[in-house]
Structure formats: C-alpha cells, structure tokens
Amino acid sequence: MANQNITLSLPEEDLREARVLAARRGTSVSQLLARMLRETVERETGYDTAKERSLARLREGMDLGTSGRVTLSRDDLHER
Q: Which residues contact 27 (CB under 8 A, 6 or more apart)?
C-alpha cells in the first residue's frame, strides 16, 4: 500500500512535545502519528465488527434445547 502525505496543523507547543516524544521512542513524528492513527482505526473497526457479530447472534437467538416451546408453566418454574 502506497503512503500518501497529509498536512497537519498543530499548536507549536504540541508539535514540540510530539518531537520530544518521538525522539524518546526513536522514531519520527510522522511515524509516531501514523502508528497511533493506525492503532485507533484498528481498535475502532475491531470493536464495530465484534459488536455487529454479537448483535447478529442475539437476533438469531440460541437453542436452549426446547425447540422454541415452553413446556413448563409459570407455577412450575416458581414452585416453592
């Protein structure tokens, strides 16, 4: 996949702190931001995928071994 350049506008103080952080991590500001953005996108899309999968399972329901029939009365279930 080819990289594409973007323009980002930041306050000077934020850019200065980003440069220091990138230097501490032994990388460039560009690589630091690219990695952070990639992680955010992966986290968000991973969450959405898992959420949709879970909601689909809830919609289809689960087999509880009753074949969709309730064989006990309320009184039977709550017998004391």
A: 35
Contacts of 28 (CB under 8 A, 6+ apart): 22
pLDDT tens sequence across 11-69: 999 999 999 999 999 999 999 999 999 999 988 888 888 998 999 999 988 777 777 78
- C-alpha of 6 from chain center: 25
Quote the CA–CA distance of 10 and 44 in Å, as a whole number. 24
d(CA 25, CA 60): 47
Paired tokens of 64: 């509880």
Could you give the CA distance from residue 58 to residue 42 in angstroms, rounded to a whole number?
24
CB 32 within 8 A of CB 21: yes
Our measurement of the distance from residue 47's CA atom to the centroid of its chain's CA atoms, rounded to an integer in Å, reads: 3
Taking the model in full, what pTM does it have?
A: 0.58
